[in-house]
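As described in the Methods, two query proteins were run sequentially through the folding procedure within a single session, without resetting any intermediate state between them. The first query and its resulting structure tokens are shown here.
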Amino acid sequence: MIFSYPVFRYMGMQTSLPLPSWKVVMSQIAFYFVLEDFVFYWGHRILHTKWLYKHVHSVHHEYATPFGLTSEYAHPAEILFLGFATIIGPAITGPHLSTLWLWMVLRVLETVEAHCGYHFPWSLSNFLPLYGGSDFHDYHHRLLYTKSGNYSSTFTYMDRIFGTDKGYRKLKALKDEQTEYGIKVM
């Protein structure tokens, strides 16, 4: 972020008062989430091709059962490659610095939650139907190599559109059915 400051200034980032209205901030944050999810999906899916997985993305998958800190544990090339998805929205819109900071905080909180390994009662996936959360991403880490699916970062719409969440949806339906009949699910 420090090295990208001159680029963001060139792209129109503001640092002075007045602060942007909450409507501007919320619309930019919403745009960033949708755009980031689209770009991240394709970048992440590419990282699951045979060569890139073996030489780059496998570092991130060293943990089959992720925890919060593993969200940022990755090969340097992957950090740059997928980090592009996070900064493309702000680079396009030239936000206020406070909006950029809020976006970065929300993005890190989301990725830590997705990697935390717990589905809390307050998890956003309980309230937002297309939000992936930890269950969605845990499934991705349990399966090795290129066949895992669930490539989205925040929302699940890209996986649904391209059918890369079929295995997860089948497993979830099976778990829901077993829970309904009182069968203990591991």
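Immediately afterward, the second query was submitted; its sequence and tokens are:
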Amino acid sequence: MRPISTAAGGMLRARLRSASRVRGGGGGEGAGRWTTPGHEEQPKGYLFNRPPPPPGESRKWEDWELPCYVTSFLTVVILGVGLNAKPDLTIETWAHQKALERLQQQELAAAGASGDGDAE
């Protein structure tokens, strides 16, 4: 029984060791996936690795920026107007309107019954 558990333990250790080597964890042998020689240790400190323009100059827009900004703005406007103008189709609104109609019918029926009694 003991040799089987020893063999299974050895196979498990070997499999875990190879898995940790592939994922770059532990062991210290070779460069990991995220620490290859091509990656920098620290960023340069500029957004998108682009240095700011010299003082007095503005940044030149790329060709995709204007259509992207215009489309985004128009999408927000169209959605804002469209969602605010949609009809109120909730069950609460429907029930409220039906209740008001019933109250109005009851008031008319009560007014008609009292008006008929005066005419006689």
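Helices lie at 2-23, 65-85, 91-119. We note this only descriptively and draw no conclusion about the first query from it.
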